[in-house]
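Re: your question from the hallway

Yes, I did run it. Sequences:
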Amino acid sequence: MFMKNCWYVAAYDRELKDGGPLGRTLLGEPVVMFRDSRGRAIALEDRCCHRHLPLSLGQVTGDRVQCGYHGLEFDATGACVAVPGQSKVPPGAAVKAFPLVEKYGFLWIWMGEAALADEGLLPDWWWVDHPGWAHNPGAFLHIQCHYELITDNLLDLSHLGYVHTRTLGNDAIVDFPVKTERMEDRVRMSRWIQDRPPPPLFKTGGGFDGNVDRWQIVETQAPAHTVVYAGCGPVGAGEFGGRTEYTSGIHIRALNAPTPETEHSSFYFYAHVWDFRLDDAGWKQQMYDGFLMTFLEDVDILEAQQASLMRDPDRPLIDLNVDGPGLAARRMVAERIEAEKGGQKCDQKGSRVDGQTVAAR
Amino acid sequence: MFMKNCWYVAAYDRELKDGGPLGRTLLGEPVVMFRDSRGRAIALEDRCCHRHLPLSLGQVTGDRVQCGYHGLEFDATGACVAVPGQSKVPPGAAVKAFPLVEKYGFLWIWMGEAALADEGLLPDWWWVDHPGWAHNPGAFLHIQCHYELITDNLLDLSHLGYVHTRTLGNDAIVDFPVKTERMEDRVRMSRWIQDRPPPPLFKTGGGFDGNVDRWQIVETQAPAHTVVYAGCGPVGAGEFGGRTEYTSGIHIRALNAPTPETEHSSFYFYAHVWDFRLDDAGWKQQMYDGFLMTFLEDVDILEAQQASLMRDPDRPLIDLNVDGPGLAARRMVAERIEAEKGGQKCDQKGSRVDGQTVAAR
Amino acid sequence: MFMKNCWYVAAYDRELKDGGPLGRTLLGEPVVMFRDSRGRAIALEDRCCHRHLPLSLGQVTGDRVQCGYHGLEFDATGACVAVPGQSKVPPGAAVKAFPLVEKYGFLWIWMGEAALADEGLLPDWWWVDHPGWAHNPGAFLHIQCHYELITDNLLDLSHLGYVHTRTLGNDAIVDFPVKTERMEDRVRMSRWIQDRPPPPLFKTGGGFDGNVDRWQIVETQAPAHTVVYAGCGPVGAGEFGGRTEYTSGIHIRALNAPTPETEHSSFYFYAHVWDFRLDDAGWKQQMYDGFLMTFLEDVDILEAQQASLMRDPDRPLIDLNVDGPGLAARRMVAERIEAEKGGQKCDQKGSRVDGQTVAAR
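Structure:
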């Protein structure tokens, strides 16, 4: 069971560079994506209504995708508009069409009720298009795990000291407590690390000699749009433990949007933006490689975790303090799924408002 | 569920060149084939009655196959006739035996009630043994799809223009309608293409300069024995759209006999015969390569179609005019399966006679 | 369903040479093994109680194993004794611990009720540690079959003449009958082969010129601890067909302990000891290679047999005389499983005593 009435990333925009068709399973459904003659990206059901061949095995002809078996053609609405060898298109000959929006280097798809699709519900990741920030789109990662394990991973950065010692982790992290907030439309985790050595990637990036103040602020919006605000600055150069980052120092945002393929597998789409060394191509490559190495370390963990969970799905989990944010995010998503089942209308932001702060246990 | 009281191709005769044993799953059952001391081909259940090791892992000893684990020996009737280390063969020690006939370059097996096996029910593919025709046995193709998808494919040649543009297809095909006939023991599809350019393989084969009249006549007998009568001749050199081919021009028969391995996989046995360039070894090779390339294009389509159908088996299919013959063949097979279930005796040809012509929709 | 209250081999001792952690599925349960700071081998559930990552992906720290995701530490009793970032370990934070004993070159695990674990129930394989015997630990064999098929294989050596003609088999075996005895805590199969040529490996090993008297005595203790007493001596040099081997001649014991991984796969642990050519390194290697080649021949048979049995699990098996010992061993294990279900206490040797000799059929 997944949230349906929300945006998921379906692909990086570069994956449709050649126009498509590109086939991919999203939320268990087969989807084909292609660009029409003006370059607009379109998403349809990836299954010809005639004999069920995936349309992604066919070809794009002008504004249509043509089936590679018997030549049926489908337009951007999913309607079959041409059947070779007969003048009349049979009634009911159509495939499902999905709203698709291109933004921030991603193609965003709406798998639920099309009438509810609203671009205003996309996350606000303005840094990608802002000249004051550098931008790295992510690598293509296909992971054999449920997508919420990725959210858990991002909302509990205490694993940095054990999984990512080469790039982002060091022993300092777990000495400082986590604060969890359930906000209007998101879950917020924050941890401030005072007067400690920076981890390897930050030390190199910011050119720090000694200790720093460091922050990790992670915000997850349903279903799984997670921004990690990470950075560090000189000790005492700002309000330690506050709601906002220091204005001095270095600032990175990791933009994360895992999308379920099935109940047991996911695509992990991501990007990074940063506000320093903007014209340094070497640093840009180092950012790309460093985070990819980090994420690949996570892949090993996540796939082993998924396999272990599937061995005995009913076995209970013991929760720790650091699980507060992840559990709050799971509750947020579960409420949304429940609301969709009940046919309840969601508010503008698509979320139940409670305004309560969920205390870390 | 498959038809059982009928012949299926179990193997090419050349596959038993070394005498066997050769193991293969047919209609979901394990079958072992071998040749006795006089070269006669024999088919037994591929599972020793003792500890179930496949007999195909053993060896042929004279007229018997010997299990590779404990040395039990089975004769052509499936009876266990020797147990090493004990003088008495235990009661019930036997494996199933299947009628097996060698003809037209194929080994034909009868998986149903052995008493009903009748060589007179084999299809009449006399061209294979006639000096006026050249003959190419097919390649070994193991396809991950239900065997009826192969029959559909052969009975709907409108796909030639989309899947096989390099050899057999061109745009002309779908301009001409399909005629479907349900005959006494078979389904017949015919399409005549008038005054059009020949496709690449026919142009080379017949040495045609300009347009031709071309025909595709496909006849399927249950369970899936399908002859494609294909050819072309000079424009106006015969009765266009008639029941029989032009006597002038070139004539090819594609002899097809897909056999189910399981509900989701098949072996596709085939051969080609033709009545021109009989002593031209280069053309013989070109025929072999051209049709193999064509069939391998089909394999990609058929396996993707099977996987897509299995994602959502209950999703309806939209039918087109060109599906008439395939649907009629499916009805023919379904009636035969129903008759076998009900224990009804079949007539000489093994089929219900209705004599009705099924009009193309 | 497996016997639980008994010892199984979990690993060769050499597999923990580096201290671990080593993850392995045994009887369907995930197990992690490691050595503490004094070298003692420990076995725990291979699943962190927090988020279920296998502990075998973490690292050993002193006397503990540390989870590779969030750093939780577990001691030899399975208790979680440290949670990074919080002072209090949550109630219930623990994993299962299994009794583990190191003996005869193997690590023996007790997967059932820990309170019943008793080293006195280990098989008595004293030859491994005795200076009058040479010793080869086995290779690591992971076989896709139920472990009882391995016991069947060992208790019915009539297959030597069909599967292992290169090393241990020859035609002579099946001329001599098998005797089956159900003893207090084990099943015993014996076969004496009089005045026949020795098989290849024995001929080389013992330097025999002509015929020999040869014996195969196989004893299986539940669940699957099987000693093969094999050897041969000069014709007439001892009591042919007796309860004990000739004192003259050569003596080999194959020590076998297959362990179920799942219902369909097993680990096959073994060792060999022998009382001749004790300081002959070439012979030692020849013993290792010869028996490994032999066992790999069995692997092919056993995996094909398992696959064939799984095709049609309800199909009956025809039993032969040679199956007497294997069937008796299966009854012995089934009785033990039944007794464990009923919560019955077992006697010192863990087996029902009947003292009856099961006659070979």
